[in-house]
UniProtKB/TrEMBL annotation:
InterPro entries: DMSO2_SphG (IPR024014), Luciferase-like_dom (IPR011251), Luciferase-like_sf (IPR036661), SsuD_RutA_monooxygenase (IPR050172)
Domain of life of the organism encoding this protein: Bacteria
CDD domains from the UniProt entry: Alkanesulfonate_monoxygenase
Any Gene Ontology biological process: alkanesulfonate catabolic process
Gene: sfnG
Source organism (scientific name): Glycomyces lechevalierae
A GO molecular-function annotation: alkanesulfonate monooxygenase activity
NCBIfam families: LLM_DMSO2_sfnG
Keyword terms, alphabetized: Flavoprotein, FMN, Monooxygenase, Oxidoreductase
Keyword Amino-acid biosynthesis found: no
Domain Luciferase-like: 11-332
Protein name per Swiss-Prot or TrEMBL: Dimethyl sulfone monooxygenase SfnG
């Protein structure tokens, strides 16, 4: 067992900061995208085993997300409403200047005692850029810009005479004060990224601290991890891995499957189709065709990050075993979405998490 396999799995949840919940369906969803609900949820989540929360960034409506709270300001509000939760704010290079973002994170980190993190989103939604009057770069160029962005923010967070010279960004003898909170094992705020394409995997291996995979089978996730690790090794780095999953835990498997069936039966077909067309700008637009959503079926797209494919649907026992299967393949963190967040997060903490911890203890016993 490698070092990270002996560590307890970490859990994150998607912050429902856009309207319409995490599934593009007309099924009843008791999840609310407003602040009061989210504040309650964040506190509940940190008491139910969640170490991280991931805010979404969306500037305009798409596939039903008619209203959207901005990611960085919403993340800061959640940081200030909680005590231990680390909140990951999602940002787009191309819309943020890296120096301005680095400064924002340093302040958020100071205000929260070192709990701020970022998810660098390279973009799939062309309209978001063009409607804001910004150029839409081709896929590989978007990732080249994101990589510079990450190198730049890390330089500025850690150096007193920060220098950077790239094709997209420059920095001359810059001293950020105050710097973010540095501590044991944390030289700077953590940098997460998503994306399944070869461009995304390469960037993760070279510069990101965490690689997020869309929902996928254990084998599919393992292949992504292998690719990222190969690159990371060449650069003498360690990257950690998260995978997205939409979790439906019920007392019986039949009940859980029935919820999934209803979500898909009541899918907002028009919105799902629109989303399917928009995401062709992701990895599908590259020669290698390995990006997110390139082999997603209609039912997969109803959860817009392929969350059903992870198969976290069933009884607490079944789900816990499935989660351990991902851990065996190298996953360090499960990023979870739910239908009715308040109820489902409490159920997860009470019924699923204890079994995960028992199984982890049993695995440790086996190897010791
Ligand atoms: C866990 C996760 C979270 C993401 N969050 C966002 C988001 O909030 N907003 C957004 O526009 N894209 C988001 N993305 C999309 C990615 O940043 C990227 O644009 C997309 O994965 C396409 O990547 P690919 O072409 O490399 O496969 C997310 C992706 C993942 C895996």
């Amino acid at each position: 067992m490698n070092a990270s396999a002996s560590e307890p799995l970490k859990f994150a949840y998607w912050v429902p900061n856009v309207s319409g919940g995490l599934v593009v369906s007309k099924i009843e969803q008791r999840t609310d995208w407003g602040y009061d609900y989210n504040k309650r949820l964040a506190r509940l989540a940190e008491d139910n085993g969640f170490e991280y929360a991931l805010s979404q960034v969306r500037y305009i409506a798409s596939y039903g997300a008619a209203y959207q709270h901005e990611s960085t300001s919403f993340s800061l509000a959640l940081l200030l409403a909680t005590e231990r939760l680390k909140v990951i704010a999602a940002i787009h290079p191309g819309l943020w200047h890296p120096g301005v973002l680095a400064k924002w994170v340093a302040t958020a980190d100071q205000l929260s005692g070192g709990r701020a993190a970022v998810n660098v989103v390279s973009g799939w939604f062309k309209d978001e850029f063009t409607k804001l009057g910004e150029p839409w770069l081709e896929h590989g160029e978007r990732y080249r810009r994101s990589e510079e962005f990450i190198r730049y923010v890390k330089e500025i967070w850690t150096s007193e005479h920060a220098e950077f010279s790239g094709d997209f960004y420059r920095l001359h003898d810059f001293d950020l004060k105050p710097k973010p909170v540095a501590g044991e094992g944390r030289a700077h705020p953590e940098v997460f990224q998503g994306g399944n394409s070869i461009d995304a995997r390469g960037m993760a291996g070279r510069v990101s601290d965490w690689y997020f995979a869309n929902g996928n089978s254990p084998e599919g996730v393992e292949a992504q991890i292998r690719d990222v690790r190969e690159v990371a090794q060449v650069h003498g780095r360690t990257v950690r891995f998260g995978v997205n999953g939409f979790l439906i835990a019920r007392d019986t498997e039949a009940e859980a499957r029935e919820v999934l069936r209803e979500i898909i039966d009541k899918a907002d077909r028009e919105a799902v189709a629109g989303f399917g067309a928009a995401v062709k700008q992701a990895g599908q637009s590259t020669g290698d065709k390995t990006g997110m959503w390139q082999d997603s079926e209609f039912a997969d797209l109803v959860q817009y990050n392929d969350g059903f494919r992870t198969g976290l649907i069933g009884t607490p026992e079944q789900i816990a075993h499935r989660i351990i299967e991902y851990k065996r393949r190298g996953v360090n963190l499960l990023l979870l979405g739910f239908l009715h967040y308040l109820e489902d997060v409490a159920y997860f903490g009470e019924h699923v998490l204890p079994i995960v911890r028992e199984l982890e203890a049993a695995e440790r016993e086996k190897v010791s």
